[in-house]
Specification:
six-stranded mixed β-sheet; 42% helix; 13 strands; D-Maltodextrin-Binding Protein, domain 2; alpha/beta
Length: 323
């Protein structure tokens, strides 16, 4: 197989350079000094006959050719990684591996405590990184939230996505993780609301909603309620699910929350949970991973633990209902 003299080790450096657009940070990722990274960049420039990175003001930017190389280079490295790991055994007791998940603050709050408990019991050295998508990023993406979440998986920035079905990638495997439902939530001191609420009262109140990302993406519940009444009185928009309970306190506002999330905050905050006076779509959360890691023993192990953690939460919920 001919590679026109390209040292394939340089692809690792190229990937870091294309991602970081900075020789110092790229060198840190691949454990090279700045001089060695600069030398590698010089070799890459010579091979491609293109500067790849050029200065624009105070920063470096990708040339058009470099932009075209981002996806194929990342694709080659991910596939190579999967080949290298195909016979690799995974021992939870001795592993120091880091697993990265991208999920909302709602999902993190609901399942992370159970997941952490399980991991630390059988894999004391394994690390977990959760990356929340709340719209507050240093480099605001121009992509819609679904495309950006899928790009995290494609580029290897995360090992797993935990998302609604609408945000899943069609090219990577996924499975259902858990189902939840929506409830109404008000401040417990709200004198306008008793134990039950009618549709008329619901729509007469001031509402708090969550919108995600720089595009202010509407959540599933907002889209569904707009179909019932497009004139819903939205008076406050927040950027994450976890902000909702605190902003209700001391107000006559109402919000719609995921049931498990609301029950978690009810333990610590003076909020009241109400059954909604109309049906909304179920909250069907899925876990997705890169297709190249479908048979990776570590991925299989961690995925199973996430599923068990979700079952812990919803098993306890079922037990409460039947008690």
């Amino acid at each position: 197989m001919q590679f026109r003299g390209l040292d394939l080790n340089l692809l690792v450096v190229l990937d870091a350079l294309l991602t970081e657009q900075n020789t110092t940070r790229a060198g840190e990722i691949v454990f090279l000094g700045q001089s060695a990274t600069s030398a590698a960049l010089a070799r890459l420039r010579e091979f491609f006959g293109d500067p790849l990175l050029v200065r624009s003001g105070q920063k470096m930017v990708l040339t058009p050719l470099a932009q075209e190389l981002v996806e194929p280079v990342r694709h080659v490295l991910r596939e190579t990684e999967s080949i290298a790991n195909c016979n690799l055994k995974f021992d939870p007791k001795s592993s120091h591996r880091t697993f990265k998940l991208n999920m909302s603050d709602y999902v993190t709050t609901v399942i992370l405590p159970s997941l952490l408990k399980r991991v630390k019991k059988i894999a004391p050295h394994v690390r977990i990184e959760t990356r929340l998508y709340t719209g507050g990023t240093a480099q605001v993406s121009s992509l819609p939230i679904g495309d950006e979440l899928r790009s995290y998986l494609e580029q290897g920035d995360v090992d797993f996505l935990v998302v609604l079905k609408d945000f899943l990638s069609s090219v990577h495997p996924a499975e259902e993780l858990f189902n939840d439902h929506y409830v109404g939530v008000v401040w417990s001191g709200n004198r306008l609301v008793k134990r039950h609420i009618s549709p008329e009262q619901f729509f007469s109140m001031s509402h708090v909603v969550v919108r995600l990302g720089p595009h202010q993406t509407h959540t599933q519940e907002e889209i569904a309620i707009r179909q019932i009444d497009p004139e819903r009185r939205i008076e406050l928009v927040v950027s994450s699910f976890g902000l909702v309970p605190s902003v209700l306190i001391g107000t006559d506002f109402i919000a719609v929350m995921h049931a498990q999330h609301a029950k978690f905050y009810q333990k610590f905050m003076p909020i009241k949970i109400l059954q909604l006076p109309f049906p909304l779509p179920p909250v069907n959360m899925n876990i997705q991973w890169h297709r190249y890691h479908d048979h990776d023993p570590g991925t299989l192990w961690f995925r199973d633990l996430v599923k068990q953690a979700a079952k812990d939460v919803f098993r306890s919920e079922t037990a409460l209902k039947t008690a």
